[in-house]
Amino acid sequence: MKIGIYAGSFDPITNGHMDIIERASLLVDKLIVAVLCNPSKSKGMFSIEERLLFLEESTKHLKNVEVEFFSGLLVEYAVKKNANVLIRGLRIVTDFEYEMQMAQINKNLLPTLETILLIADVQHAFLSSSMIRELATFKGDTSGFVPQCVTKYIENKL
Ligand code: PNS
């Protein structure tokens, strides 16, 4: 059974993440969407519980997708989950260096683990969680960029 992990901060999930999740779920038997900490990012806008809630709600139609939080190294999590592949999305050229570095380090730490980079759909190429956080901060309309449950939550919370 092929098990894939799509890890990220997901603060919050965007339509770009959803596109990668839907496409990745067709490539593996089981896809684990994992919220992990990115030490180079600040505490974030949404709590881990909120991020998980959004992910669970947005992926409930995908029967081979699970959502989890893990605190630690991605490769440790991959071993724990018996995962074969890591999935990441690649948007614009500037993503490439970071994704390459991460893939190389993870490969070095765990040579049996492959990283698959899925090219973002062009309509999501400039979409990021940080843009959504900024829109949310200034009460901008997020509805075209995130799953409906996220927009509703933002509107009620802020
Ligand atoms: O959505 P992001 O912030 O680009 O996701 C990055 C993430 C969370 C996948 C990455 O920071 C990560 O793997 N964090 C866990 C620690 C780790 O294993 N880092 C990579 C090797 S140094």
Structure notes:
By secondary structure, the protein is α/β, with parallel strands linked by helices. Helix content is 42%, strand content 20%. The protein has helices spanning 15-25, 48-59, 74-80, 93-109, 129-137, 148-157, and strands spanning 3-8, 30-36, 65-70, 85-90, 114-119. The protein has a five-stranded parallel beta sheet with strand order 3-2-1-4-5, with helices on both faces. Bound molecules: 4'-phosphopantetheine. Residues 7-9, 36-38, 41, 73-74, 102, 105 line the site of 4'-phosphopantetheine.
Give the topology.
Elements: E1 3-8, H1 15-25, E2 30-36, H2 48-59, E3 65-70, H3 74-80, E4 85-90, H4 93-109, E5 114-119, H5 129-137, H6 148-157
Parallel strand pairs: 1-2, 1-4, 2-3, 4-5
Share in β-strands: 15-25%
| Strand arrangement in the largest pleated sheet | 3-2-1-4-5
Average pLDDT: 96
Radius of gyration: 15 Å
> Based on DSSP secondary structure assignment, what is the total number of beta strands?
5
Main sheet characteristics: 5 strands, parallel
Category by helix and strand content: alpha/beta
* Bound ligands, each once: 4'-phosphopantetheine
* Helical stretch tally: 6
Apparent shape: globular
SSE order? EHEHEHEHEHH
Helix content: 40-55%
Q: First CA to last CA: what distance?
A: 43 Å
Low-confidence stretches: none
